[in-house]
Amino acid sequence: MSGRTVGILGLARSGRAAARLALARGERVFASDAGDSPELREAAETIRRQGGEAEVGGHSLERLAACDVLVVSPGIPPTAPVLNDARLAAVPMVSELEYAYRELAAPVIGVTGTNGKSTTTALTAHLLQAAEFDAPAAGNIGLALSEIALRPEPPDWVVVEASSFQLAGTDTFAPRVGVVTNLSPDHLDRYPGIAAYYADKARLFRNASASDVWVLNAEDDAVRALPGAAAGQRRWFRVNGPLAAGESGGYLAADGVLTLRDDGREDGLLHVGELRIAGRHNHANALAATLAAVAAGASRKAVSEGLRSFPGLEHRLERVTEQDGVLWINDSKATNVASTLVALESLTTPVVLLLGGRHKGESYAALLPLLRERARRVLAYGEAASRIESDLWPEVPVEVVAGGFADVIERAAGVARSGDVVLLSPACSSFDMFRDYEDRGRRFKRLVLARGEVRRG
Predict the structure, then answer these.
(1) Is 117 among the residues known to form the active site?
(2) Catalytic residue status for 285
């Protein structure tokens, strides 16, 4: 491979990691980003110091056309002019996930789905680590897979969260264990319809073999259909009743015990009350992660201990603080309507819901049944604010908050009463106001905690 020229489109986290991997493999690098910011300029300068070439503020299409392969950031939509320029038509394009996988010497557990991917990925890695495997989590969860491929010694397993955007650019990606958490409409701002979105998810099974294990949500018809006739063993999970006759996998028993079944033998692992992550959706995530870890060789004893110790994820129903009897919860990772529904279902007290950001093509009307019961008020903000108001008003109280994110927090504090929850669960992407959902969630926490400090002072 030495001597090839690798073009890197996008200098965010995955692009920077792919550039480092290419240079470490002796390949030439030409990195290009249409944006221009201090962070991007610093990334470009770092690549230059490492021996590559980089540009920001636009794309030199002739230079990109001369590359042997283009590694495309998942943040670049398929409709972007650079991806559709005729001069690049002959250049193979892959995702960073695919590029890194070709250089990876470790087996992979691939996790996809619409919601629950990050929790299931992190929990699977945690369970394998409890079983004393070297098993980092990578991919869409934050650590680029290229970073793992750069390690001098390969780990025992890599647990990879794979988004539809990443899977779209794969060709050889072949996880030995695959997980599909659930499926629902998402990213309709980038896909022509739900079928195209599901088709990219189905690329998880593109290179399936008979020895592979697929961990699938038995209660989701779209998930059941997704693998089609792909080779491999099915392991099913359910939280609303036992497994069907002949199914192997795991289920939530009527007494609240997470239970595994294999070849007709059933073993109870632990009661869900022992988990540190709450909610039926997390019971499903726990079952999926358990089945994946067991398929990778973890013992049931180690899995049980790991389930008890897993603390959950930042930005996923994360309790930030309580002020004047009001609980503030950061669920910034809820970037679609289905995820916000899960958050609302986990609460029983009145809610001040912070909803907004960049619209992704879904109607917010699906939130109405729960909001009628629980919403003290919906505070709509960002680019999607007017659409949120039109979808929800007058059936629930909606207020559009102009100004910055700090104004949203202050208005929430003014509306909430003792015993309420202020829930940041935006059902939108963050890119109108923030770098990503993590930036949004951390900004939320800083503003809320700073407000508390001021009040105590």
Answers:
(1) yes
(2) no
